[in-house]
């Protein structure tokens, strides 16, 4: 199932895997929290891995030309002007 923007068809499955760089670390941390009844003292290793991944992502600039919203806005501007 996709969305239509005018005559443009967008496949959301194509963009589903993009932009999730720390997902494995987050899932490991949340799984540890659920096993330990939300006691994060026992999940120090997973928490450190998640914070290290998040810190590594801060320096990387996002490229707006690759996002689907950028292309939708670009195509929408051409219609109205």
From TrEMBL:
Coiled coil: none annotated. Pfam families: CX9C. One of its GO terms (cellular component) is mitochondrion. GO terms for biological process: mitochondrial translation. GO terms for molecular function: structural constituent of ribosome. Signal peptide: none annotated. InterPro entries: CX9C, Cys_alpha_HP_mot_SF, Ribosomal_mS37_fun. Residues 18-56 form the IMS import disulfide relay-system CHCH-CHCH-like Cx9C domain. This is IMS import disulfide relay-system CHCH-CHCH-like Cx9C domain-containing protein. It comes from Cocos nucifera (Coconut palm).
